[in-house]
Design goal:
By secondary structure, the protein is an alpha+beta fold. Helices cover about 50% and strands about 20% of the residues. It starts with a helix and ends with a helix. Bound molecules: FE2/S2 (inorganic) cluster.
Length: about 130
Amino acid sequence: MEYSKKVVEHYTTPRNVGKIENASGIGEVGNAVCGDIMKMFIKVENNIIVDVKFKTFGCGAAIATSSISTEMIKGKTLEEALKLKNTDVVNSLGGLPPVKLHCSVLAEEAIHEAIADYYRKTRKINRRRNKTKM
Ligand code: FES
């Protein structure tokens, strides 16, 4: 199977590459077999992902899945973003060769990790606030 036009387009001109300073949440995941690493930064305001950026050290499919998944969650609520599955990412890209499906799993995991990190941080802040109120 060859790469779809959309995969090639996202690989050659990836969207939302970079880092967010003071990100609300950061998710970093990797695949032990291929060694690729994906890092996702999210900025959350009022439960909405208002900005998202990524840094991926990996194959073309990992870059394409990172890129399209950032577009798919930008402007979404955290709950909506958590529903994004790797299969949605693959379908949006017009498919991936079977040997590259695990690259889309990295994108799903990186988003979940970034949101989990956001929840961890906000819980800590809320706990601190509650303590000071007492
Ligand atoms: S080959 Fe491992 S993420 Fe693409």
